[in-house]
Structure formats: structure tokens, C-alpha cells
């Protein structure tokens, strides 16, 4: 009996994780990636492996994914720069600090460690932060990683056949490539981020642009990934352009600085006024940043859904087509959990993640797609 043949569209972090899981399940895997492996949204990510608790489903997916990252870490090459630095969710005032305890309890219920830092403890832990902050939630198990290296590692481990060609359309039982050739497969996994919106325009996907900046060496020393506690509530809660404080220490002595959000901006241009807002926000929390030089600035495109949860599972109308997209800013964190959930659906294996509905069908009637 021949092995199941799977085509994975997209060689980023999510596609590579899915290819690895499919191969470990016995599938013969072909990956379609016209650009560099991990060169799209994966390369434009901060590589933050973080537990998030905006919904029970998100908490379950991120917490399980962190467990899978911890299991994978010993096998990763040194170039992956996997480092457990933890996250500090910084509270600016008493209102934000009041939100810490429910967040801490949610993390504990998910099996993650989390502790409250008073204002004095925060100052001693991260002395570069400005005075007057109210405290923080410390999540010591969060990590950072250089995701493009991990994507290449997982594809090599999977033994996947990598074809440097773009998928132009889905066909009945396969994929039509840019050159017109049709590849047949038992299963097609669409894992190419916002590119899925071109292949399957009926899906509820939105494009979200973000900016990142990395400093030169010798930046202010910080010990944790630092994120403002109002990250979603006050800074990224709406559809308008927004910025938030999010700084990550790198092993090189640099700082990676985010974050910004702009919807329906498909270009890759630098929005300099928005970038200045982002940096002013960062310097408000870390004043020494104002004396630090930038080495590089770039942008990336995320793929978002209306409820900020990814699409993982079968297309409602296309037999053999599965989705693994719509991860917005959590694609690196949740790639391994996504692959586990996908593998559980395909191979009938157990996974606690199946208790939550990540399938496209949760949005009600998704219009039927038209095959090429």
C-alpha cells in the first residue's frame, strides 16, 4: 500500500511544522515554496514563543504549543538561537495591574508558571525600564527563537521534497503550478499565510502589516521579552493603525523592537510616521533607547481572521483540502500546535486541541470555492 501523498503549500514556519508532522505520520510530503524557506512572514516575525489568553481556545493552543517547543528545543541547531528568557507583561498603572491576577490564574490553569512582580521588584528585575511603572506579570517559560532556521530544520527532518514553484490554483485532487503542471495528491494543506486568500478568496482572511526594527549591538540590556500589559486592550484593540511596546533581547546584544498593526496595507514600504510612533512608544518604557542606533527596519504581512484564531482543518467544500493559516502574529508560537491538531484530524490521533473549534466551518456558511 503506497503512503499518503500530501502537498503542503508554503515553506514558512507553519508549513514546515505541518510537513514534519505529516512525514512522521507516514505521509510522503511535497512542499511548494517559490521563495526562500522561512523567508516570508516567518522571517518578518519576532520569534516570540508566548502564551496568550485572549480566549480559551487561544490559551489552549499557545500553551500546548509551548510544551511542544520545549520538547523540540534539545534537537534544534545552535543557529536557531532558542532561548528561554521569559516574558514580562508590564503594567503602566493600577488599572492594568488589576488585570494581572486573572491573567496569572489563566496561565496557571493552563499549566504555565506565572508570578506577580511589584513595582519595586520590576525595577530591580529590569532596571532600564522607566520609573513609575505599577508592576508586571512574569511568565518565565516563554522563549524566543530564530524561526527561519527552525523551518529549514523541520523540512530537512521531514525528508520533504521541496519544489521552488508557486501554487496558482487548487484543482480537484491537486494543485496547478505556475508553469501549468498539475500535481496530484491525496491531501493538500494550504499553509502559505496571506497567500491563502488568493487561492481561496472565499475564506474570511485579512492582511495585517507590521514593522520591526533591530538595533546595533550595545543596546540597553534587558533580560526578558518586555510587552506592555495593555498590548491588546489599549494599543491593538481596534482596526485603525496602532503601535505597542514590545522589545526582545537578542543573544548578540541587540534589541528587536515592535510592534505595529495596519490592516489592508499590502505593500512592504516603511511607514515612517508610524515607525516613529512605535519607537516613541518603546522609548517611553525604555528611555535609553533614544540614544541607540538602528541597524535595520523591515515590514511583514500577517494573515488574520475575524476572531483572531487560525484556520486549522478541512475546507468545508473541497475534499482533501486542509487549512493551516490565519495565525496573525502567533504563527511561530502556534506552528507546532497547529501541526499537531492537523495531524490529529488527518490520522485520527488524540489531541486535546480538538476540543476547540479551529476549523473554517466555525464562521458559518463559507461560500463554495471554484476549482481551477
Please, could you describe this protein's structure?
By secondary structure, the chain is of the alpha/beta class. It has two domains: 5-47 and 147-205 and 307-363, 3-Layer(bba) Sandwich (FAD/NAD(P)-binding domain), CATH 3.50.50; 87-140 and 207-301, D-Amino Acid Oxidase, subunit A, domain 2 (D-Amino Acid Oxidase, Chain A, domain 2). It is 28% helix and 26% strand. The protein has ten helices and 19 strands. The strands form four sheets. It has an eight-stranded mixed β-sheet with strand order 5-6-4-14-15-16-13-17, sandwiched between helices. Strands 8-2-1-12-19-18 form a six-stranded mixed β-sheet, with helices on one face. A three-stranded antiparallel β-sheet has the order 9-10-11, with no helix packed on it. The chain is globular, with a radius of gyration of 20 Å. The mean pLDDT is 94. Keywords: Oxidoreductase.
Amino acid at each position: 500500500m503506497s503512503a499518503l501523498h500530501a502537498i503542503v503549500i508554503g515553506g514558512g514556519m507553519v508549513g514546515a511544522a505541518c510537513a514534519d508532522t505529516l512525514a512522521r505520520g507516514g505521509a510522503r510530503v511535497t512542499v511548494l515554496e517559490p521563495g526562500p524557506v522561512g523567508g516570508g512572514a516567518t522571517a518578518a516575525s519576532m520569534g516570540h514563543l508566548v502564551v496568550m489568553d485572549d480566549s480559551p481556545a487561544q490559551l489552549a493552543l499557545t500553551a500546548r504549543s509551548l510544551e511542544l517547543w520545549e520538547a523540540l528545543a534539545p534537537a534544534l541547531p545552535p543557529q536557531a538561537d532558542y532561548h528561554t528568557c521569559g516574558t514580562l507583561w508590564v503594567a503602566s498603572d493600577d488599572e492594568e495591574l488589576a488585570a494581572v491576577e486573572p491573567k496569572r490564574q489563566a496561565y496557571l490553569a493552563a499549566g504555565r508558571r506565572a508570578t506577580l512582580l511589584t513595582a519595586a521588584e520590576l525595577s530591580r528585575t529590569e532596571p532600564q525600564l522607566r520609573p513609575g511603572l505599577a508592576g508586571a506579570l512574569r511568565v518565565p517559560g516563554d522563549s524566543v527563537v530564530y524561526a527561519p532556521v527552525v523551518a529549514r530544520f523541520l523540512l530537512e527532518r521531514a525528508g520533504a521534497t521541496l519544489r521552488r514553484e508557486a501554487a496558482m490554483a487548487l484543482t480537484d485532487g491537486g494543485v496547478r503550478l505556475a508553469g501549468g503542471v498539475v500535481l496530484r495528491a491525496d491531501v493538500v494543506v494550504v499553509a502559505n499565510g496571506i497567500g491563502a486568500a488568493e487561492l481561496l478568496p472565499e475564506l474570511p482572511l485579512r492582511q495585517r502589516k507590521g514593522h520591526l526594527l533591530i538595533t546595533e549591538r550595545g543596546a540597553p540590556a534587558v533580560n526578558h521579552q518586555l510587552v506592555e500589559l495593555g498590548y491588546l486592550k489599549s494599543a491593538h484593540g481596534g482596526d485603525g493603525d496602532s503601535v505597542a511596546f514590545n522589545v526582545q533581547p537578542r543573544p548578540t546584544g541587540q534589541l528587536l523592537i515592535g510592534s505595529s498593526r495596519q490592516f489592508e496595507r499590502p505593500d512592504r514600504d516603511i511607514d515612517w510616521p508610524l515607525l516613529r510612533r512605535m519607537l516613541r512608544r518603546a522609548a517611553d518604557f525604555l528611555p535609553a533607547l533614544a540614544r541607540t542606533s538602528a541597524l535595520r527596519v523591515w515590514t511583514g504581512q500577517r494573515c488574520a481572521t475575524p476572531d483572531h484564531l487560525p484556520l486549522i482543518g478541512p475546507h468545508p467544500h473541497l475534499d482533501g483540502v486542509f487549512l493551516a493559516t490565519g495565525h496573525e502574529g502567533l504563527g511561530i508560537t502556534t506552528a507546532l500546535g497547529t501541526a499537531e491538531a492537523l495531524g490529529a484530524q488527518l490520522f485520527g490521533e488524540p489531541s486535546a486541541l480538538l476540543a476547540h473549534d479551529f476549523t473554517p466551518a466555525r464562521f458559518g456558511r463559507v461560500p463554495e470555492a471554484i476549482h481551477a
